[in-house]
């Protein structure tokens, strides 16, 4: 949304914003307190969320190596952080431009599809336990975009 807001501001340098343009800006501004609150919650709970995921992996995938698990969790940390920032900005392109194309290239070097599938399943379960449905609605589409990119 920030690029859209910047575009609106640039377009309105010699005129007032139209009603629909103001509506876009009002929508973003009114959702900002909820986005900020969720961003702070994710930041403060990141270690607990990811530790919960990491602790459950061995029972789901008993043959996973420590090296692969560490790599998977490191990538999941990046996905959670970039998804959180994209959620705060309300800008899915931020996630795509900054993270997903890079991660897609990294992940294609090793076959970690089964591990990634398990990590995202466990992450989604943990997020559902930690956050309200309205909070999940802000974050989930971004996590899903990362999941789709890395698994399929």
Automatic annotation (TrEMBL):
Keyword Kinase in record: no
SUPFAM superfamilies: Globin-like
InterPro entries for this protein: Globin-like_sf (IPR009050), Phycobilisome_asu/bsu (IPR012128), Phycobilisome_asu/bsu_sf (IPR038719)
Keywords for this protein: Bile pigment, Chromophore
Chain coiled-coil ranges: none
Superkingdom classification of source: Bacteria
UniProt key word tRNA-binding: no
Recorded family membership: Belongs to the phycobiliprotein family.
Protein name, per record: Phycobilisome protein
Lineage, top ranks: Bacteria, Bacillati, Cyanobacteriota, Cyanophyceae, Pseudanabaenales
